[in-house]
Write a structure and sequence with these properties.
The complex is a heterodimer of chains A (about 120) and B (about 120). With about 120 residues, chain A is mostly beta strands. Chain A is built from no helices and eleven strands. In chain A, strands 2, 4, 5, 6, 9, 10 and 11 form a seven-stranded mixed sheet that branches. Chain A starts with a strand and ends with a strand. The relative contact order of chain A is 0.34. In chain B, the strands form three sheets. In chain B, strands 2, 5, 6, 10, 11 and 12 form a six-stranded mixed sheet that branches. In chain B, strands 3-9-8-7 form a four-stranded antiparallel sheet, with no helix packed on it. Chain B has a two-stranded antiparallel sheet with strand order 1-4. Chain B is mainly beta and about 120 residues long. Helix content of chain B is about 0%, strand content about 55%. Classes of the chains: A mainly beta (about 120), B mainly beta (about 120). Chains A and B meet through strand 5, strand 9 and strand 10 of A and strand 5, strand 6 and strand 10 of B.
Chain lengths: ~120, ~120
């Protein structure tokens, strides 16, 4: 049963520290999405990639957030420096785009707490 | 711009009751895709269904059914004979059909509580 995996599942850090979240998409999927979920804002799309190329990162605060796909099996989301308002659950999702919008399969999320 | 509205923030029912979760969408695209996802207390989002704009046939899967009506821009989700395990947050989402796009716009979710 193929699944999206995310590490770490939980992260507590202090303000100003760097945070790196990792995602392993389902093998063969060519699209990766990063979402942030908070009670106030709901699900927000931060960035997404197709075939490892960034297609849209307009949802991401550019000064502190960065997203990359070093290879087809790894996507990373980095926050530097982290702030308390970054506390949220960060989801990665992957899909297979073959000409029609892909169904997105979500990972379990990384719960980030910035003190 | 796309928009998905789930007007029901919270719904509470007693086990075995039927419940319908509403989803209304806005889009200028003639071709688009609609989704429902379930987020149980464990937190992971689970895909339930995908429907394209050209297929208005209703769909039934066990106790779940979906009613898609383009005339009212709605894609409602009904759970028949609800069970406690159906308690979750349910999200409706809309995706563009443009092959260079693919972003999904999510509604704010409806929290369903099924009481024994």
């Amino acid at each position: 049963d193929a699944r999206v995996t995310q590490t770490p599942r939980h992260k507590v850090t202090e303000m100003g520290q760097e945070v790196t979240m990792r995602c392993q998409p389902i093998l063969g999927h060519n699209t990766v999405f990063w979402y942030r979920q908070t009670m106030m804002q709901g699900l927000e799309l931060l960035a997404y990639f197709r075939n490892r190329a960034p297609l849209d990162d307009s949802g991401m605060p550019k000064d502190r957030f960065s997203a990359e796909m070093p290879d087809a099996t790894l996507a990373t989301l980095k926050i530097q420096p982290s702030e308390p308002r970054d506390s949220a659950v960060y989801f990665c999702a992957s899909g297979l785009r073959t000409g029609t919008p892909d169904t997105q399969y979500f990972g379990p999320g990384t719960r980030l707490t910035v003190l | 711009a796309q928009k998905v509205t789930q007007a029901q923030t919270e719904i509470s029912v007693v086990e075995k009751e039927d419940v319908t979760l509403d989803c209304v969408y806005e889009t200028r695209d003639t071709t688009y895709y609609l989704f429902w996802y379930k987020q149980p207390p464990s937190g992971e989002l689970v895909f339930l269904i995908r429907r394209n704009s050209f297929d208005e046939q209703n769909e039934i899967s066990g106790r779940y059914s979906w009613n898609f009506q383009k005339s009212t821009s709605s894609f409602n989700f009904t759970i028949t004979a609800s069970q406690v395990v159906d308690s979750a947050v349910y999200f409706c989402a809309l995706s563009e059909a443009d092959t260079n796009a693919g972003k999904s716009t999510f509604g704010d979710g409806t929290t369903l509580t099924v009481k024994p």
